[in-house]
Amino acid sequence: MSDSDTTYTEAAFDHDVVVVGGGPAGCAAGIFTARYGLDTVIFDRGRSSIQRCAHLENYLGFPAGIDIETLYELMHDHAEEAGCEIVPDLVESLERTDDGEGFIIDLQGVVPITARRVIAATRYDGEYMRGLDDEAAMFETHEHDGEEHEHFDKGYAESDGTTPVDDLFIASPYGDTGYQALMAAGRGARTAISVVEAVRRERGYPDSLANYYDWVRRETELEDESAARNRWREHFDDRVADDHGLEEARLAELRDREIDRRIEMYISDDEIDRRGERGQERLLEHIDDELILDAARAIEAERRTATSNNGEPTARDSR
Questions:
Q1: Binning pLDDT at 50, 70 and 90, where does residue 6 land?
Q2: Domain 15-202 falls in which CATH fold?
Q3: Would you give the end-to-end CA distance of the chain in angstroms?
Q4: Cα 160 from Cα 164, distance rounded (Å)
Q5: DSSP string covering 87-156, please?
Q6: For 68-72, 86-90, 305-309, which range has the lowest pLDDT when averaged over its residues?
């Protein structure tokens, strides 16, 4: 659901969003920011805490569980399909740009890059963020066996991922989020929505209209496009404060773009079928070839048996 804006640019930066960490939280965050049209890169060195799991059995959508390698491939495939670039480099440090409007990301053995916003999605190590900790609030000290140790403060970020550092967001599964992979993915998605909403506010959307959701609808629910456009125009205007401070031409541009975005969310039955088929084809790419062949042979044998018994195709044949 891209909301590109030709009058707004972040071209001064290498990327709109840098995500540090390519586990469930980082990939979920990247999917949402990339689908909105933000140039997103995910840095992942394969150190996600989920790799300590022997077999994941409580991730929604996999009735018999899923091995970690396949899940990782699926997550990365999804992120790349959404438009993310995944780079296997280590982020060593973050610091503010000179004007304080973005970040410089220092990479191990690679030329530093810049980003307008950063999402930290690593669980074990927040050391790379220490350079942003002007008030020494990001880390806390604990005593263990008579020695003091510093750790990243798990309560540093708000529940929506925002932090005291402007444009730094924390998607790591800390605090109330817990450490389950499914919860981490949800945390990543929530944090990414905070990022998108921050971008929308910066682009001029009033606070009351900066909220964002990514939801594809059936075209049959759109009874009358003209009436829907009028209804959303009224919805937009009713929620714009009198002191919005925008020129009327700019406000009208934002209104039309928002209405177009909502209309684009509706897709036809044919498109629903096409996307459904493509989705299943993409899943097949992650299934062992021998398992696919075994299943195909079993289906063919079942069809032959059914045909020899009554000469009629089974319900499975007709699909």
A1: very low
A2: FAD/NAD(P)-binding domain (3.50.50)
A3: 32
A4: 12
A5: E---EEEEEE-TTSSSEEEEETTEEEEEEEEEEE--SS--GGGGGG-TTS-SEEEEEETTEEEEEE-TTS
A6: 305-309
